[in-house]
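Fig. S4 source data, part A: sequence.
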Amino acid sequence: MNVPVDILRFNTCGSVDDGKSTLIGRLLYDSKSLMEDQLEALERSADITGGGQINLANLTDGLRAEREQGITIDVAYRYFATPRRKFIIADTPGHVQYTRNMVTGASSANLSIVLVDARAGVIEQSRRHTAIAALLRIPHLVVAVNKMDLVDWSEQRFLEIRAQFEEFLPRLDIKDVKFIPLSALNGDNVVEPSPHTPWYVGPTLLGHLESVHIASDWNLNGFRLPVQWVNRPNNPTDPKLHDFRGFSGQIAGGIVRTGQKVIALPAGIVTTVKQIWTYDGPVEQAFCPQSVTLVLEHDIDVSRGSTIIGTDQLPGASSQLQAEICWMHPRPLQPGKKYFLKHTTQTVQAAVTEIVSKLNMATLDAEPEPAALAMNDIGEIRLRTAKPIVFDGYATNRLTGSFILIEQGSNATVAAGMLLPPREIVKPENGDYVI
């Protein structure tokens, strides 16, 4: 059986000048994950941006405006590997006005690193980014208390910041939280342990990233395959591909095995999995998040936008949806306007029927019935789609419980959304599916 490569996706977030880009640069530099040309580019830019010293933030702050202002504006992705694990990093902006960019970068993360300046402590942006990480159901959180060298490596200050977080963390329902004192600029507790923190007995940041358990982060309960493509090679010279008809996509949840009964939705017809194909050839079983092609026992009507599911732990199917969203457009969201809603592999027309509430980031309380949602606001809404969609609650399955709203005409992405649990699960009218 093919096992997916162990890849940890994580993002860094925090307020302006908390050291997010410098931290990533330090991770790459000290773990010896940089190419020679990257090191040479850093040295060439040192006199311009670093006062004659290598500026590690330039590894992620690639835009000229970012380097001139010393801030992160867009999401920057970097990749590196150690002998124990591969990593995909999203460096996200700290400014309030770029909250939407932070949501984008964190949407697929297994782990989120919230940086806090040891001098300033917990501020509103620290709470905002922690709340967004909880809203996105990111399973693991690291609170990196940075610039500890500027507070004389005070254990008391570290414990004060930890206590400030622990006042509101229980409200956010984040199960796995790790606090690490460090100095991104000097490299203390980033890759190598620091001699300045004898009172800290935990792992370095890289040590924690290499060892945090992520195998159970994927939803392996309830098989889901949103069909992306109907695979019809029809190669007359190859008997295996002659009259081949498979359904390709990325498994969004659960495990599938040959001989397993599945339901093709929206047709609602039960059939059996005849073959499972991967890039490396046929397999007997596959699981989330592998990309596969399924060959079914019966020739039924399945196309892009259909969903093939297991017969247990059925999803919801409805045209009346309730969701939490982050609004990303300069024009405020107002009820009544129509959008395109893209969910898994299908796109349908949708209208926002009601704005239920808006999240107050200062207090983390929901403010009921706001008149509109402005850019970067997070709130709860109700939607009506032109036809029912098959979905799970976002808390159950991040892949089948998420969507984006697209403005008609401009095709601009205006919101990212997380569906609340369905009120009714899929069920046949006569109580049984038939072929």
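Fig. S4 source data, part B ends here. Residues 155-172 form the longest helix (18 residues).
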